[in-house]
């Protein structure tokens, strides 16, 4: 039986770098090019060549999901992204019900792009909304206008996309509770079936980190951020969205199958600079700079920067780390006796669902979701 192998395709280009972003992305100026077309020339050819390398390495495999992320995939010509889907279809067995997701920016995506990608097989859109408050978007250095989110979502639905998701960020400096409420209500007014909501994290080396260090921006308290999460969860659930992972809610059938593949330990291949892959007992990641990546590929050399072998202990810890984030939780039979013992205090404190625990399963309660990282640290360290 052929293994299942999801594909992540990294598009490392953005028009502007957002102040909070530490992803492996580059602007034309950072790549010393006049425009996006110049700096991305031949990039897709390199990605397709890596897909061919994946075929030689893995052999036959069924591909259940493809995810174009970045960066800003919607900046690329749709014909180029369509070529990637065709290459995967040619080299592997693309599942009949394959989920193919494109991340898009509300300002850069066009109806023509959406129509062409739908024809190529894409059936899910993930849109960076972040906030409905203009001053919050400005603090985040986002370039889009809130009104364009609704326009882009409507265009995606019009062009037959079965699933549309928006991403929200809460906890931005200067974001009031009223701002967050407006963002949640605006997202729920859209014809979508999936919402992701992430707390803003200050990453070292970003513009945001420097602004916070200089005192120009002040991060909200943990209590305020927790209150925003709980409000979002209550609002999403009331609107028919069910949480299935700490930061993700969906209507029935709207779950992101690609992300579930990461969380449930399935195999995936990440194509592009800085992309990570996991197959068998190995995990590896590519060199980060697009130019270096393309140079390696042009020489028919592997773009891998480093790899590691996962021990049974590594896999067991990662299972706890990832599975605890999911609504399904963890069966007691999948835990050690010491882990069960350590977890009991979180049952007493109400951070684990008591009813599930009585059924020999660890499932986070609503409050437990707020301290998931702490619970994980106690169970795996």
Characterize the structure shown.
With 381 residues, the chain is α/β, with parallel strands linked by helices. Helices cover 41% and strands 21% of the residues. The chain has a nine-stranded mixed β-sheet with strand order 7-8-6-5-4-3-2-1-9, sandwiched between helices. Strands 10-11-12 form a three-stranded antiparallel β-sheet, with no helix packed on it. A two-stranded antiparallel ribbon has the order 13-14. The longest helix is centred in the middle third of the chain and has 17 residues. The two termini are 36 Å apart.
Give a short synopsis of this structure:
By secondary structure, the chain is of the alpha/beta class. 41% of the residues lie in helices and 21% in strands. The radius of gyration is 21 Å and the shape is globular.
SSE arrangement:
Elements: E1 5-11, H1 36-39, H2 43-58, E2 62-70, H3 78-91, E3 93-104, H4 111-120, E4 124-130, H5 134-139, H6 146-158, E5 163-170, H7 177-188, E6 194-199, H8 207-213, H9 222-238, E7 242-245, E8 248-250, H10 257-263, E9 267-271, E10 276-279, E11 282-286, H11 290-298, E12 304-309, H12 312-323, E13 330-331, H13 337-348, H14 354-358, E14 361-362, H15 366-370, H16 372-380
Parallel strand pairs: 1-2, 1-9, 2-3, 3-4, 4-5, 5-6
Antiparallel strand pairs: 6-8, 7-8, 10-11, 11-12, 13-14
Uncertain segments = none
Tally of contiguous helical segments: 16
Lateral strand order in the biggest sheet = 7-8-6-5-4-3-2-1-9
- Structural class comes to alpha/beta
Summarize the helix and strand pattern as letters. Answer: EHHEHEHEHHEHEHHEEHEEEHEHEHHEHH
């Amino acid at each position: 039986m052929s293994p299942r192998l999801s594909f992540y395709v990294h598009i490392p280009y953005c028009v502007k770098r957002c102040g909070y972003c530490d992803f492996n992305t580059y602007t034309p100026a950072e790549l010393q090019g006049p425009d996006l077309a110049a700096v991305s020339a031949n990039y897709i050819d390199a990605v397709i060549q890596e897909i061919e390398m994946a075929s030689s390495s893995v052999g036959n495999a069924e591909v259940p999901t493809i995810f174009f992320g970045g960066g800003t995939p919607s900046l690329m010509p749709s014909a180029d992204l369509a070529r990637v889907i065709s290459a995967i279809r040619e080299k592997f067995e693309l599942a009949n019900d394959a989920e193919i997701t494109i991340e898009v920016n509300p300002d850069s995506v066009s109806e023509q792009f959406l129509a062409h990608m739908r024809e190529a097989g894409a059936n899910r859109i993930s849109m960076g909304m972040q906030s409905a408050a203009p001053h919050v978007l400005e603090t985040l250095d986002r370039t889009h206008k809130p009104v364009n989110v609704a326009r882009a979502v409507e265009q995606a639905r019009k062009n037959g996309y079965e699933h549309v998701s928006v991403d929200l960020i809460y906890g931005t400096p200067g974001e009031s509770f009223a701002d967050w409420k407006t963002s949640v209500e605006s997202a729920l007014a859209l014809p979508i079936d999936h919402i992701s909501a992430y707390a803003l994290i200050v990453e070292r080396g970003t513009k945001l980190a420097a602004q916070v260090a200089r005192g120009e921006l002040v991060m909200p308290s943990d209590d305020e951020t927790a209150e925003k999460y709980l409000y979002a969860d209550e609002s999403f659930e009331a609107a028919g969205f069910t949480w299935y992972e700490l930061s993700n809610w969906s209507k029935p059938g709207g779950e992101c199958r690609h992300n579930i593949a990461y969380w449930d330990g399935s195999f995936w291949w990440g194509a592009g600079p800085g992309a990570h892959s996991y197959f068998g007992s190995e995990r590896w990641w590519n060199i980060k700079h697009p130019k270096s990546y393309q140079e390696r590929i042009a020489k028919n050399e592997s773009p891998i920067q480093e790899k590691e072998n996962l021990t049974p202990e590594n896999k067991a810890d990662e299972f706890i780390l990832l599975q605890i984030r999911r609504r399904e939780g963890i069966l007691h039979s999948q835990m050690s006796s010491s882990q069960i013992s350590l977890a009991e205090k979180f049952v007493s404190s109400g951070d684990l669902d008591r009813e599930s625990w009585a059924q020999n399963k660890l499932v986070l309660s609503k409050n437990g979701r707020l301290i998931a990282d702490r619970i994980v640290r106690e169970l795996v360290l």
